C-alpha cells in the first residue's frame, strides 16, 4: 500500500488514497499504521476519497482507531496533498468532511505552496450539540476534576473543545487526559491550555481526544481564539497562535472562523502491514 506522511505544525498524518473504496477496516488500519513502534507512526490516518458533494473527501481516523469529524492541521495537509498531486487543479476548492463542507484556498509564492487557508465554519456553544451531560452551556465555569479546579469553556469547533486559560498557573498538558474523559462530556473532549501573551498572540498546548498530547491542533487553536475573543482577551483581526510545533493564524469573522498555516510532506513509501 502506497502512503505519504505529512505534518502541519508537527501534527503528523499518514495519507493514503482510496478512490475505489478498497479499504475496509480503516479504523484497525489506522491503529496499525499510526503505531510509532510497530507501524509508520502518526497522530492520525487521512484517507483521500472522491465526493459527490464537494471537489474531494477527507476521512480522518485518530491513532487509537476512533473517528474524527474534523482536524484543522489534517485538512491543511489534505489541501496541499490534493493540489500538489494534481488531484485538484484549482487553488480554491471544497472538501467534504465529517463536519460538513470546508472551503480551502492554496496560497502560492512563486508557484510553491506557502500557506493553506481554510474556512473552518462557525463555533457552537450549545451543549446539546457538543454534547454535554446536564448543561445547556459551559462558558467560563469552574469545574472540579480529580480534586483540581479548572475554569472551563467548551464549544463545538468541528469537534468538541474545552479551553482553559492559564491566568493563575501553568498546566501540564497531560492533565487533559482526565478532563477528556470527564463525565460532563458525553463523547469526550479535546483540551486546550491557553496563555494570552498579548492582544494578538496566544500560546496553546492541546491534549487531543483519541491522540493525546500533540504538537499542534488546528481546531483547538481556532476554538481557543474564539473563546479568547468572546471573553475579551484578544482583539479583532488576525491572531497569531503559537503551538509547540509551529504557528497558525486564526481570524474570527462574521461568517465564521478562518485558519491559515503551513503543511509539509515528510516522506512517501510502501507499507506491508497486514490487518
Automatic annotation (TrEMBL):
Gene Ontology biological-process annotations: lysine biosynthetic process via diaminopimelate
Main localisation: cytoplasm
EC number: 5.1.1.7
Enzyme class: isomerase
PROSITE patterns: DAP_EPIMERASE
Binding locations of substrate: 11, 62, 72-73, 190, 208-209, 218-219
HAMAP family xref list: DAP_epimerase
Record's protein name: Diaminopimelate epimerase
Species for this entry: Clostridium uliginosum
Gene symbol of the encoding locus: dapF
Amino acid at each position: 500500500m502506497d502512503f505519504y506522511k505529512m505534518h502541519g505544525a508537527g501534527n503528523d498524518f499518514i495519507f493514503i488514497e482510496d478512490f475505489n473504496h478498497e479499504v475496509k477496516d480503516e479504523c484497525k488500519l489506522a491503529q496499525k499504521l499510526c503505531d510509532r513502534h510497530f507501524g509508520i507512526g502518526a497522530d492520525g490516518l487521512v484517507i483521500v476519497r472522491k465526493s459527490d458533494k464537494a471537489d474531494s473527501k477527507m476521512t480522518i481516523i485518530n491513532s487509537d482507531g476512533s473517528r474524527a469529524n474534523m482536524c484543522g492541521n489534517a485538512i491543511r495537509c489534505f489541501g496541499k496533498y490534493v493540489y500538489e498531486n494534481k488531484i485538484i487543479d484549482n487553488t480554491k476548492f471544497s472538501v467534504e468532511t465529517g463536519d460538513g463542507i470546508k472551503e480551502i484556498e492554496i496560497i502560492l509564492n512563486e508557484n510553491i505552496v506557502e500557506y493553506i487557508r481554510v474556512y473552518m465554519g462557525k463555533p457552537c456553544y450549545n451543549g446539546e450539540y457538543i454534547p454535554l451531560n446536564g448543561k445547556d452551556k459551559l462558558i467560563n465555569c469552574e469545574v472540579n476534576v480529580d480534586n483540581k479546579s479548572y475554569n472551563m469553556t467548551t464549544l463545538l469547533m468541528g469537534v468538541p473543545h474545552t479551553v482553559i486559560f492559564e491566568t493563575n498557573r501553568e498546566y501540564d498538558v497531560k492533565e487533559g487526559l482526565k478532563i477528556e474523559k470527564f463525565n460532563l462530556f458525553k463523547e469526550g473532549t479535546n483540551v486546550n491550555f491557553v496563555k494570552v501573551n498579548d492582544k494578538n498572540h496566544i500560546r496553546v498546548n492541546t491534549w487531543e481526544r483519541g491522540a493525546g498530547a500533540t504538537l499542534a491542533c488546528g481546531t483547538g487553536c481556532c476554538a481557543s481564539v474564539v473563546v479568547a475573543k468572546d471573553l475579551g482577551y484578544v482583539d479583532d483581526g488576525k491572531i497569531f497562535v503559537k503551538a509547540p510545533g509551529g504557528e497558525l493564524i486564526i481570524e474570527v469573522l462574521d461568517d465564521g472562523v478562518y485558519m491559515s498555516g503551513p503543511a509539509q510532506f515528510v516522506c512517501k513509501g510502501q507499507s506491508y502491514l497486514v490487518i
